[in-house]
Write a structure and sequence with these properties.
The chain is α+β, with helices and mostly antiparallel strands. The protein has helices spanning 18-27, 58-63, 74-86, 132-142, 175-179, 205-226, 239-245, 276-284, and strands at residues 7-12, 32-33, 40-43, 48-53, 69-73, 93-98, 104-111, 126-129, 147-150, 166-171, 182-191, 193-198, 228-235, 253-257, 260-270, 288-294. β8 (126-129), α4 (132-142) and β9 (147-150) form a beta-alpha-beta unit. Bound molecules: adenosine-5'-triphosphate and magnesium ion.
Length: 300
């Protein structure tokens, strides 16, 4: 069973957030031995246990202090927070880190044939959704008198089934909506995955220290993903011009090249990639051996 001295992290067992969350844990050096059917997985090198559950359960597990951390989509987190507040349950948490995956939006979509002239067209309508609290909050903000009809699945077929007039569901590409004869009209919430932490002072010093050791590694992984290492050979006379072309290259490293007095090597870590157009301009300036390399890890 779980040992209360080990940091407990909830992660979606199988779904859109699972692979990226596990990959992130591995990237920050947490070795895991996951057996597909088991609810709990242990880390072999850190005092960490993973609780593998449905994503719906993750906000509550963190808010009730059953786990210390959880990987969750902001949509599910915000919905559960509103739901728990409404029923008087603890709903506190802290966002430890915002992450770069699980991007989607919660949108209202209406059947293609339904006349739509803005949110006011939803007045008096029934809207099927898995996110009734987020939707009702939106109706209140917009001063619309409409009804959220809770469905836990197959939301997109609700209008055809006569269960609702419109829907409010998660969208990433819009292909599912289109396939069901629906048109996206209003984005009510934009979401990404986050790593949340229980909000109380009961965390032992040891667990707190572990979190403080791992959180900067997450920053390192995120930063490395969006950064590139750029190397090129440049004519000495053009170094200033070259610098001005390189994105985010205020302080490049300039190195002499053996056997060449008028050419130098320029190395720079950039938070943007180098576009083909810029590479062509550099080449036109006389640069050569232009390399753009991915960075695996970054610290400090
Ligand atoms: P579970 O069985 O764990 O309850 P689920 O069916 O509720 O799974 P998934 O479809 O795996 O959940 O989605 C989990 C989360 O992934 C969503 O809550 C959302 O934050 C994010 N997500 C990203 N893109 C999409 C998308 N196109 N559709 C739905 N969710 C998405
Ligand atoms: Mg779910």
């Amino acid at each position: 069973m779980t040992d209360s001295k080990r940091l407990r992290i909830a992660v979606q067992k199988s779904g859109r957030l699972s692979d990226d969350s596990i990959a992130l844990l591995k990237a920050i050096g947490v070795k895991l031995s996951i057996r597909d059917r088991l609810l709990i997985a242990h880390s072999t090198n850190e005092k960490i246990d993973l609780l593998r559950v449905r994503d719906d359960d993750i906000p509550g597990l963190v808010m009730d202090g059953v786990v210390d951390l959880g990987f969750i989509g902001e949509n599910e987190l915000e919905e559960k927070m509103l739901e728990r507040k409404a029923s008087g349950k603890p709903a506190d948490y802290e966002v430890l880190r915002r992450l770069d995956y699980g991007g989607c939006r919660l949108s209202i979509a209406v059947p293609n044939e339904m006349p739509y002239a803005g949110v006011s067209s939803l007045e008096g309508k029934r809207v099927a959704t898995t996110y009734p609290f987020l939707l009702e909050r939106y109706f209140i903000e917009q001063n619309i008198n409409a009804k959220a009809v809770m469905l836990t699945g197959s939301v997109e077929v609700a209008p055809r089934a006569g269960v609702a007039d419109a829907i409010c569901d998660l969208v990433s590409t819009g292909a599912t909506l289109e396939a069901n004869g629906l048109e996206e009209k209003e984005v009510i919430f934009r979401s990404k995955a986050v790593l949340i932490q229980r909000k109380d002072s009961e965390l032992s010093d040891e667990k707190q220290a572990l979190i403080e050791r791992l959180a900067p590694r997450i920053d390192g992984v995120l930063l490395a993903k969006e950064s590139k290492y750029i190397m090129l050979h440049a004519p000495k006379a053009e170094v200033e011009e070259v610098k001005s072309l390189l994105p985010g290259a205020e302080n490049p490293t300039i190195l002499p090249l053996a056997g060449s007095d008028d050419t130098v090597a320029v190395h720079v870590v950039s938070t943007e990639t180098l576009f083909w157009e810029t590479m062509e301009k550099l080449k036109a300036l006389g640069c050569s051996s232009i390399l753009v390399l991915p960075i695996e890890k970054m610290l400090g």
